[in-house]
Amino acid sequence: MAEILRIYGGHRLEGTVVVNGGKNAALAIIPAALLSSEPCTIENLPQVRDTEALADILRELGAKVSLKGSTMTIDPRGVNCSTVPEELACRLRASYYFVGALLACFGRADVSYPGGCAIGNRPIDQHIKGFEALGAKVSTDRGVISARAEGGLSGAEIYLDMPSVGATINIMLAATRAQGNTTIVNAGKEPHIVDLANFINAMGGQVKGAGTDTIRIRGGRPMHGCTYAVIPDQIESGTLMIAAAATHGDVLIRGALPTHMEALTAKLLEMGARVDEGVGEDSIRVRSDGNHRHVNIKTLPYPGFPTDLQQPMSALLSTARGTSIINETIFEMRHKHLEEIRRMGGISQVNERIAIIEGVPKLTGCSVTASDLRAGAALVVAGLMAEGVTDIHNVQFIDRGYEHLEKKLRSLGAKIERITDEG
Ligand code: UD1
Description:
This protein is of the alpha/beta class. It folds into 2 domains: about 5-20 and about 230-420, Enolpyruvate transferase domain (UDP-n-acetylglucosamine1-carboxyvinyl-transferase, Chain, Alpha-beta prism); about 25-230, Enolpyruvate transferase domain (UDP-n-acetylglucosamine1-carboxyvinyl-transferase, Chain, Alpha-beta prism). It contains 14 helices and 24 strands. The strands form 6 sheets. A 4-stranded mixed β-sheet has the order 22-23-1-24, with helices on one face. A 4-stranded mixed β-sheet has the order 2-15-17-16. Helix 10 (about 305-315) runs parallel beside helix 12.
């Protein structure tokens, strides 16, 4: 039966919370373990649906996978198959990283089209351009991405039309086994791209420049096993920071890396919240008296404001003084949660990628439905702020990317429970 999150709003969040490992980093690193000739142990994984889905794909391919809490050990030595079937691929977006990883390992890959959040058109032309530049032949017939490089891959210089996170990761994976050097120009700079580079290097690969817009990969290096801990989750950190401000709270978020959070921190400060870096450890403390000013936000590739935090942030802006303008430049359908927040008394208008939010004094709880992962997070923030009871449907979206979100919020003083929807 379906589950819902029920939030009794208006409770201040206070205390300390620990961030889990990065979901998007984990989703790149788990397929990369196929590149090793020995088992790899990956620590600090978030316990979310998406990482479990990748473990299922690895098992289907023939790998031995043990998942205990936040640690996954992957032994790729039994992998004998280069096909990811539809029922597994469609469970998440990151299943398409197996194209890059399998192409590197076997010179062939057949991966059904990925799933993931319906937040707009999500083409993969830059991934394909990269694989083709490395010498693969790629077709996308009947919903399957098929790539072939029977004679092996060769290093190349690849310019991305936009700094696509997914294309950067997929090309990095494939290029590790190409003969010679590959350069990705206009690469994504997101923290999880750097984390993947560090993991590949820990296995014996050679990736330089990750975190800048030019990444250089020396191909063909032998890869051995390693133990690697994933970075903390940038988006969970940000969601908790926003929730702290939204409830006029005082929360210390342990594990959050301040350098990854600069765009959000700047906007929270502009709104009138207090944000301080922890002393002596990676942590961020957010305090607010709730007297928030409106701000404008334009989503951009890292280090700009992350599109994944735009939705929770727009929930917070629903009760800020004045009019906020949000320009979503990355995905065209990332304002659907505002329809739900309007049901709670929010005032907003959406014109394609632009959302105009008129702050109201308060939201009122009601029954709302998450349309995707971060829309779900936005509705949680709205529910925490609202007067009365908010029921959030489609919790499965939230579970794809947040580990025990309601438990963490409860530990900070939120009144939130997961109940079975009898209706
Ligand atoms: C990743 C993140 C997602 C985040 C997004 C932007 C993962 C698993 N997901 O998604 O949470 O919201 O980055 O930070 O890490 N594009 C093309 N052609 C391509 C590839 C992308 O036109 O071949 C466009 C997309 O439509 C989008 C933009 O480029 O408009 C950015 O997409 P991309 O950076 O690739 O996002 P994802 O990797 O899908």
